[in-house]
Amino acid sequence: MAGLKKLGELQKSEERLAYLLLLPTLFILVAIAIYPLATVFYNSLTDKKFASSQEVSFIGLRNYRELLSVTVKELPPVIDADTGEVQIDSETNQPVYERAINILPREPFRFRAMKQFNLFGKMYVIGATDREFVRAIGDTLAFTVVTVILETILGLGVALVVNANFKGRGVMRAVMLVPWAIPTAVSSRMWEWMFNSTRTGLVNVVFQNLGIGNGQIPFLVDTAWQIPAMITIDVWKTTPFMALLLLAGLQLIPKDLYEAADVDGAGMIRKFFTITLPLLRPTLAVALVFRTLDAIRVFDLFQIVLQNTRFSMASFAFYNLIDSQTMGYSSASSVVIFVLISVFAVFYIRLLGAEND
Predict the structure, then answer these.
(1) Are residues 318 and 327 in contact, defined by beta-carbon separation less than 8 angstroms?
(2) How far apart are CA 206 and CA 130, in angstroms?
(3) pLDDT for 53-75, tens place per residue?
(4) DSSP letters of 206-253?
(5) Are the C-beta atoms of residues 238 and 180 closer than 8 Å to each other?
(6) What is the pTM of this model?
(7) Is residue 308 very low, low, confident or very high in pLDDT (cuts 50, 70, 90)?
């Protein structure tokens, strides 16, 4: 009994020691994470101005409503006052519809037209109180999903290659990191020149030689090409990062498992799906979370290449903070970025089952 009592006291002492060691960690966490996040969230509920002595007022969720409000309205056809019939455009031979500005609500916020579409013979308009931010959300999500998928597939392929035992793989590993090592400001300017809208741009020259286009495709001016161009730049630069993370995971897999699979007569594909991929799941989850976090808060690439002609969510927040000085509004957009990152992180962890590994 005395021994059990002493063992219990020892366990309690260890628990107290663990709590004491945890206190500095909690303090640092509050200082560098929770407090700044709480400050940003509070500012998002106010009309605070950046670098201004203006009195701050609490406005609740007004910033969020102005940022995220979207509506869809039907555009009624214009009726000719003389004939009572639907007015027809003489050039297109299509019905003339009311202007979106006359249909979209103006209270409590003014909605502006984003896009019109025809559905089952009726014309509709999508309106938003802040077209730039809604568009930035769509662009950032499209950028994130496509880049993360491509970089994961390509990064895994590169990692599998450089993980193999062949002569010169050390040099290959060093070479693959070159795009990642180049500063984003430099690589963005480099690709900006390559995507030049004239024949001085390398991509236009290559496309023209392949019989694609006339050598004057406006990659960074035409809205249809801008996001694909951003995706191309990011995939080129960031695939080595994914490859490096996945390579670290591959090297943790015991070689004995592959040798046993060889004895059983398993082929490369079967070994990949039964050994490599299951054991790589925790590393893959970490890589996806890190890469998605970076992609959702992408700033420098959009800011350098597209400047203020088209925003990511992060560059939109920066523009409103520095140029417009609307700190409360900028804080609200930053909170939206944080929420999206959290959703993706939880989704990846649950999808890949990493919490059980």
Answers:
(1) no
(2) 39
(3) 888 889 999 999 999 999 999 98
(4) HHHHTT-S-S---TTTSHHHHHHHHHHHHHHHHHHHHHHHHHHHHTTS
(5) yes
(6) 0.84
(7) confident
What residue has token string 């209270």?
107
Q: Which residues contact 351 (CB under 8 A, 6 or more apart)?
A: none
Contact yes or no for 111/129 (Cβ under 8 A): yes
Alpha helices in the chain (DSSP H): 2-29, 35-43, 62-68, 100-103, 131-163, 169-176, 178-181, 184-194, 202-209, 223-250, 255-263, 268-271, 277-296, 300-305, 313-322, 327-352
Structure tokens at 313: 């969510």
Domains of the chain: 70-129 (no CATH), 132-356 (1.10.3720.10)
Question: In this structure, what DSSP letter does residue 31 have?
Answer: I
Chain length of the chain: 357
